[in-house]
Amino acid sequence: MLDRAPQDDPATETRPVAFRGGGFMPATGRASGWIALMLVIALWQFAGSAGWVNPLFLPPPSAIAVAIYKLAMSGALWQHVSASAVRIGSGWVLGTIAGVIVGFGIGLSTLARGVGITFISALFPIPKIALLPLLILWLGIGEEPKIATIALGVFFSTAISVYSGVDAVPRNLIRMAQSFNVPFHAIVRRVIWPGALPSILAGFRITASVALLLVVSAEMIGAQFGIGAFVLQAGNLMQTDQLLAGVVVLSLFGLAVGKAINVLEAKLLHWR
Amino acid sequence: MDLIADHISHRFGALEVLDRVSFTVASGEVVAVVGPSGCGKSTLLSILGGLLRPSEGKSELRGAPPAGSLNPLTFVFQDFALLPWCTVEANVEFPLAHTALDVATRRTVVDDALRRTGLSDFRGAYPKQLSGGMRQRVGIARALAVRPAILLMDEPLSALDSQTRELLMEDFIRLLADGAMGAVYVTHNLEEAVRLADRIVVLSRRPGRVREIVEIPLTRAERGEIDARGKLLALQNDLWSLIREEAIDAEREVQHA
């Protein structure tokens, strides 16, 4: 007597269950990104060297690298970068301080919420660069109107991310603190501030790019030094290698800020 | 110190949640509050603990709190309510930071609370690193640190698996055994109620009214004995027959809401 059924009997034949759970879980692989970037740069370089594209319209990466090197050696790069960095730094700090204060006010006070959200809803959609001419009239033609434009742009996004963060703090944690008679200021410092921090830091990422956008725009409108002014001048003189050198510097600046925020998040939000 | 629910009624807008609920929790007594879903058990606890203002009636304390009590009415929350950015130790110390205790005393109190809840080896861990049962132990340690007169426990075991529930129930029985602390224990689990409580307040479906107050005729020590199991089960069945019809109605109401 056979102890196994014949192989071709569908009633007893065993077959593996087909796997259906694949996909929808993209992994973060860095290597593929770097390889793709290198390939694009290599293709770009090759197209330039082979004469496929006019270097006046699109200079090859090597020409941009040489332009950056020359700018660095002449000291012009530092002059432009430092001018932009001072404007971004001052505007961002001012806008952030004001935004955090107003954001917490809106998050914690009924009166401030009523007034603040109305004003923010009305003023937030205005492209802040459109206010630069008015700010020049008010503050003169120096650094102040540029810094004020950046501060205004940073302020609104910060205020929104702060009060959204305060709103997102789990109410049960606040109730818990109240149930232990923890005073208001301590609840703000020890419960609401750390609870809102993820949203605040996410806001920093947005405001850093807003500040970069506004500094370039403001410098293109009226500045002698600064990356925006440098890019505009290079464009006017058809020095596209210099123009793209400025764009690369801006990109590196944005990357550096993004990395700094990553470090800040890793340090402050390690508990997540 | 006694806690008195004095004709407490509450409405959320047009929705009447509680209707003239009155009972007293005597010093060292454990009172469970049970009732169908949505009968206002948790709302009642929030009102008793001063976290919610009742529409009518009041929550009152009678007598002096025990010596050294920093927060006579202390909550233990269903969802633990731990600060995720603080370690176990910092969570337990959190309510002490704004008291008159000096640093050395605070440390002693925290050490004692961690020891009593078996958390001494986990003091540096963050809540996300702990299991649900351990997180609730942190919640209990935090409550013990302020030396409460009455614990206000809002379904403290309902977010936990059955084995962890059993272990924590044993902890509760042990912590409440000496009668130094009383408790109001809100639960939908009748087995927990009959094992832990001295009296059980049965609420009707919404608006919650006191339907019956059931005395448990066994001491908590007696309830651990094998002979008591039959009696406890009978009590549990009596309670269930009291609320079953209303629980079905409440369930239908929730489905149609």
Query: Number of helical segments of chain B?
Result: 8
Strand composition percent of chain B: 15-25%
The general outline of chain A is: flat
The number of strands of chain A is 0
Whole-number average pLDDT of chain A? 92
Helix/sheet category of chain B: alpha/beta
Our count of helices of chain A gives 10
Q: Which ranges of chain B are low-confidence, i.e. pLDDT below 50, for 5 or more consecutive residues?
A: none
Explained architecture:
- The complex is a heterodimer of chains A (272) and B (257).
- Chain A has 272 residues and is mainly α.
- Chain A is built from ten helices and no strands.
- In chain A, helix 6 runs antiparallel to helix 8.
- The longest helix of chain A has 39 residues, at 184-222.
- The N and C termini of chain A lie far apart (64 Å).
- Chain B is of the alpha/beta class.
- Helices cover 38% and strands 23% of the residues of chain B.
Provide key terms for this protein.
heterodimer; A: 272 residues; mainly alpha; 74% helix; 0% strand; B: 257 residues; alpha/beta; three-stranded antiparallel β-sheet; 9 strands; 38% helix; 23% strand
Summarize the topology.
The complex is a heterodimer of chains A (272) and B (257).
Chain A: H1 30-49, H2 61-74, H3 76-108, H4 110-123, H5 132-139, H6 144-168, H7 171-179, H8 184-222, H9 227-236, H10 240-268
Helix pairs in contact in A: 2-10, 3-4, 3-6, 3-8, 3-9, 5-6, 6-8, 7-8, 8-9, 8-10, 9-10
Chain B: E1 2-12, E2 15-25, E3 30-34, H1 41-48, E4 56-62, E5 73-76, H2 88-93, H3 103-116, H4 132-145, E6 150-154, H5 162-176, E7 182-186, H6 190-196, E8 199-203, E9 210-215, H7 220-223, H8 228-256
